[in-house]
């Protein structure tokens, strides 16, 4: 019996080629073809995003319950949760500090002129108590329908702990049911991932055709600062954590989550990247499902290091744009 023939190109290679093709064709394409691109190519990207988003709620719901019931010890869940949140706070702190550091060196915004009708708008942050109240869903089904991840996580944790506490044959039956649902969700995510090269091209190509070089050039200092900040954070902060805390080669880590990184780059969405990230961590990095199922959904909501870097850089960008002197004390307050 002959061995099954291995694919000529890996999924990571196909995604990389699709990314490069979208960039090259996007820059050389005639803007006149934009109506055709928006009608026939962009919808494929929307369909790909919808496929991924379709899996967010069932994947988080089933996998967190399966993770909790597989731990058997509620104290273990508490220990993992506290250490995870503590680590997320530290990496976010490092991220915004790196963003401010890079922005103060590159000084984005200097030399950029604003349109004459540009106005400043302010948006206040939600109150802490409102945020805490919002964690408890009055209607879990509505939270699922609206894609509210944190309330969904809280409900899943409570339900998982209830199944764990119930025990017995009924508890075991429910635990096995949700474990099967989680495994089915991972399988379906694996099928969706096969369409990633098409999705990446369909998402990126229309943006490049529409934006072009003329729009990108005035913001090159902002884009470059954010990109450099993300690169430094990935290599320095996460590289050190992987090497000394995780005892893993950073090169191996980044190679095995390349699909998730590419989807994150093209969709600019932590939620949309979550299913593929979970699949990569389990299949490629061979991490324990109960750890992946708890840590990653939580991180997609409270560990937005890329956003932290962008906030740091864009704050300095806005200050330079309006000629405002942003002091070190104000930067410390921002951190």
Number of strands: 0
Our count of helices gives: 16
Report the uncertain regions: none
Tell me the radius of gyration: 22 Å
In the CATH hierarchy, the third-tier topology is known as Proton glutamate symport protein
Count of distinct structural domains = 1
| Helical amount | over 70%
How would you describe this protein?
This protein has 335 residues and is mostly helical. The protein has one domain (11-21, 29-113, 123-334): Proton glutamate symport protein. Helix content is 78%, strand content 0%. It has 16 helices and no strands. It has helices at 11-28, 34-40, 42-71, 74-106, 128-134, 140-145, 149-166, 168-193, 196-216, 220-245, 250-256, 258-267, 270-283, 289-302, 305-321, 328-334. Helix 1 packs parallel to helix 9 and helix 10 runs antiparallel to helix 15 (305-321). The longest helix is centred in the N-terminal third of the chain and has 33 residues, at 74-106. The chain is globular. The termini are far apart.
Write the layout of secondary structure elements.
Blueprint lengths: L10 H18 L5 H7 L1 H30 L2 H33 L21 H7 L5 H6 L3 H18 L1 H26 L2 H21 L3 H26 L4 H7 L1 H10 L2 H14 L5 H14 L2 H17 L6 H7 L1
Helix pairs in contact: 1-9, 3-7, 3-8, 3-9, 3-13, 3-14, 4-10, 4-14, 4-15, 7-8, 8-13, 9-12, 10-15, 12-13, 13-14
Write a brief structural summary.
The protein has 335 residues and is mainly alpha-helical.
Provide key terms for this protein:
globular; 0% strand; 16 helices; single chain; 78% helix; mainly alpha; 335 residues
């Amino acid at each position: 019996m002959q061995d099954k023939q291995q694919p000529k190109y890996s999924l990571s290679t196909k995604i990389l080629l699709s990314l490069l093709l979208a960039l090259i064709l996007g820059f050389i394409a005639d803007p006149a073809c934009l109506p055709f691109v928006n009608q026939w190519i962009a919808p494929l990207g929307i369909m790909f995003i919808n496929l991924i988003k379709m899996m967010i709620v069932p994947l988080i719901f089933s996998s967190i319950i399966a993770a909790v019931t597989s731990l058997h010890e509620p104290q273990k869940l508490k220990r993992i949760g506290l250490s995870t949140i503590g680590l997320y706070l530290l990496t976010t702190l490092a991220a915004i500090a790196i963003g401010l550091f890079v922005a103060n060196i590159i000084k984005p915004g200097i030399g950029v002129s604003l349109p004459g009708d540009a106005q400043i708008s302010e948006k206040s942050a939600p109150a802490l108590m409102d945020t805490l109240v919002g964690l408890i869903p009055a209607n879990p089904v509505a939270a699922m329908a609206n894609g509210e991840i944190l309330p969904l996580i809280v409900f899943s944790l409570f339900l998982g702990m209830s199944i764990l506490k119930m025990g017995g044959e009924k508890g075991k039956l429910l635990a096995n049911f949700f474990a099967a649902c989680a495994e089915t969700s991972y399988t379906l995510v694996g099928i969706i991932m096969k369409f990633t090269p098409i999705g990446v091209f369909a998402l990126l190509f229309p943006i490049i055709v529409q934006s072009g070089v003329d729009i990108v050039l005035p913001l090159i200092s902002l884009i470059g600062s954010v990109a450099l900040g993300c690169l430094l954070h990935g290599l320095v902060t996460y590289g050190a954590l992987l090497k000394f805390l995780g005892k893993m080669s950073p090169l191996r880590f980044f190679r095995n989550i390349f699909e998730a990184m590419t989807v994150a780059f093209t969709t600019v969405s932590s939620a949309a990247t979550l299913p593929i990230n979970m699949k990569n961590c389990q299949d490629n990095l061979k991490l324990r499902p109960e750890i992946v199922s708890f840590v990653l959904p939580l991180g997609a909501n409270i560990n937005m290091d890329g956003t932290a870097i962008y906030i740091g850089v864009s704050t300095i960008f806005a200050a330079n744009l309006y000629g405002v002197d942003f002091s070190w004390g104000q930067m410390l307050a921002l951190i």
